[in-house]
Design goal:
This protein is an alpha/beta fold. It has a domain at about 90-220: Response regulator (Rossmann fold). The chain is built from eight helices and seven strands, in the order αββαβαβαβααβαβα. InterPro entries: 2C_system_His_kinase, CheY-like_superfamily, Sig_transdc_resp-reg_receiver.
């Protein structure tokens, strides 16, 4: 019995075993997901998923930093200049792993379909910048460890002053890191480059709803969303 089959057998509920492109230690990530979403198509476990190279743009060792207070974080994350077209939102998912994209997209489209009208998937920071130049979005969910242009550098380019003419509709868009790199030091780095939050992998539905509710100032906890 290979590792993936053993992991699936040991897990009590429906589980997808996927490779995350995170830093050391490299290990499969189990994302627990409701069984009813896969009534006709049970999860497929694959042992052949490639592990992309770790990009050198994000420092391996970060200095010891203290997080700002919650009130400071809320002010930093609010992005008042970006207008959200609630409750029918357009979201851009950025991850170099196709299965990660499919799972996150399924979670949004199944449990928050009344909020997210359009979900677009891209597999690199470079492609994300290209898409953002052409049309507006309300939210970006960004993987961190991607080859060529990682999530931190992609965010820096989106937030840079030079992007105001290139990305007139998306420079101040809420950006949320979706990653295994979720320590306090990493979260501080995300704040410094202009990200609006961090969702840890493996992604739990309640955590996803709670984080997005806070960042977008919408009630996603009580699904479906009902406008006031």
């Amino acid at each position: 019995m290979d590792y993936f089959a053993y992991t699936a057998k040991k897990t009590k509920d429906s589980t997808l075993v996927i490779h995350d492109s995170g830093k050391i230690p490299c290990r499969p990530t189990c994302i627990r997901y409701s069984a009813f979403l896969f009534q006709d198509q049970p999860p497929v476990l694959s042992a052949s998923l490639p592990s992309p190279p770790i990009t050198p743009h994000v420092p391996t060792i970060l200095p010891s930093l203290s997080l700002p207070s919650p009130s400071v974080l809320r002010r930093r994350f609010s992005n008042p200049s970006h207008t959200i077209r609630s409750p029918r939102l357009h979201v851009l998912l950025v991850d170099d792993n196709s299965i990660n994209l499919q799972i996150l997209s399924r979670m949004l489209s199944t449990h928050m379909s009344d909020v997210f009208e359009h979900i677009e998937l891209v597999k690199s920071g470079v492609k994300a910048l290209d898409v953002l130049k052409r049309r507006p979005f309300d939210l970006i969910l960004m993987d961190i460890d991607m080859p060529i242009l990682n999530g931190v550098e992609t965010t820096r380019q989106i937030r840079s002053s030079s992007s105001s003419s290139i990305l007139p509709h998306n420079r101040d868009i809420p950006i949320v890191a979706v990653t295994t790199n979720d320590s306090d030091d990493w979260r501080q780095l995300y704040t410094e480059v202009g990200m609006n939050g961090c969702i840890s992998k493996p992604i739990l539905l309640n955590d996803l709803k709670s984080s997005l509710s806070s960042i977008l100032d919408l009630d996603l906890i009580h699904s479906p969303y009902t406008p006031e």
